[in-house]
Amino acid sequence: MDEKTDKFLIALIVVISVLRILSVFTISNNDLIFDESSYMNIARGLTEGLDYGYIPGEGYSDAYRPPVYPLTVSFFFSMFGSNEFVARTVSSVFGVLSILVIYFLGKELYGKRIGLLSSLILSSVPTYWFYSSKALVEGMFIFLVTLFLYTFYSSLGKKKYMIPSGILLGLIFLTKYTGGVLVVFFVLFILVRKRDLLKSKYFYLSLIAALLTIVPWISFNLRVYGTPFGSGMFLFGKNLGAGMFANFNLYYLLALVIETSLFLPFIAIGFYTMFKNKDKNFLPFVLLFLIFIIPLSFFEVKRSRYILGLLPVLAVTAAYSFEQLKKTRIRGMRFRRFVLPLIILLVIVNGAITVYGFENYPRSERFKVIPEAGAYLRENCMDKKIYSNVYDYVWWYTHKENHPLEEINLSEKNICVLYDFFYASDRFKEGFNKNFEIVLDMDKLKIYKN
């Protein structure tokens, strides 16, 4: 029976993984998030010989973004062309690879069945499916976090795995700066649970490996910003400081309800049963949870996707809870027979949530009009001067230099204006309405020309 169950779980995981890839062709291709255009502009610029993050007319306006994802996408752009489909496929492939790696992580910690359940749970989380189908870093980020956790836990038995763990720590930081908290987890875990590793050369080699991985990025920052981590100031400069304590709230605890969807109760059960069973992974998992949640809670800018790095641990925890529920009896009846149907039901409902969410996620209406606006600019404004307050969209769609709205002369002729009210007030609206023709009106986004 168990062998048949495992085969069924594998088949279900394969089906979901295929659907993830196919989603790039269908429900995820009718919009464009601003961050997507930024990452793709960097990647395309690299294939064209531009310096990292440089946009003509804007300077190094996108150079603050960590380099691993854009560098990877640029490699595939050079082979298959620069377009949204290629970039999103890269993200989706890394999303599927995460499903594979988390199987090995769950197996390393608890055995094959929890490995399979962890893969199934991660593969069906709606927010992960959504963000890893976009030209965003989340698919690659979670893949690297999951791979790090696997190599790290493997290193507790085979110390030589600490060196790839160190390299992965560097790559994680260079994919998403908030991933730097894993360095804290790495060191604290060893200090609290495996102090004998402090005597191992592999521990120090892993730290050296992590540092060497980020040296080229430090060099780039020194050249462009004059400081070792100048690019990170976009994130940390406006989020940390005297006012950071005023930013603290419970946003990310509420975001967990969205990120984990229907699996949240089982994650809670998993943590409880780990604690009750005195499971050796309870404290490390809680430590990682707190190390992610607490620093981000002080940031002014909060996005639910910033905590997606917790999903590997939460997926394993939920899988652990399902295995524990098999041992539960309700009025003398074993719960074992209901566990698999319950998991299947949760996966199906999560699938429905995913499909609905692709079309109705927050700001979706705004992002859906971007491709239409971009197509208009490309077809009608290539011989005109373009003004806009969203330079990344202009550069991505037209490959023309953008000019800021503040520089516009209302009597100027032969121009196009892309005005995105989401990113600015409507202080220019009255002047534009009087002097220019509205050729595309999409509520919060308008295109003017004369």
Give the DSSP E fraction (strand runs of 2 or more residues).
5-15%
* Total domain units: 2
| Integer average pLDDT | 88
Helical fraction: 55-70%
Biggest sheet: strands side by side, in what order? Answer: 4-3-5-7-6
Protein architecture, described:
With 450 residues, the protein is an alpha/beta fold. The chain folds into 2 domains: 2-363, no CATH class; 369-449. Helices cover 61% and strands 6% of the residues. It is built from 20 helices and 7 strands. It has a 5-stranded mixed sheet, with helices on both faces. Strands 1-2 form a two-stranded antiparallel sheet. Strand 3 (385-388), helix 19 and strand 4 form a beta-alpha-beta unit. Helix 4 (84-110) crosses helix 15 and helix 7 runs antiparallel to helix 8. The protein is globular.
In short:
With 450 residues, the protein is an alpha/beta fold.
Which key terms come to mind for this protein?
two-stranded antiparallel sheet; 450 residues; alpha/beta; globular; 2 domains; five-stranded mixed beta sheet; 61% helix
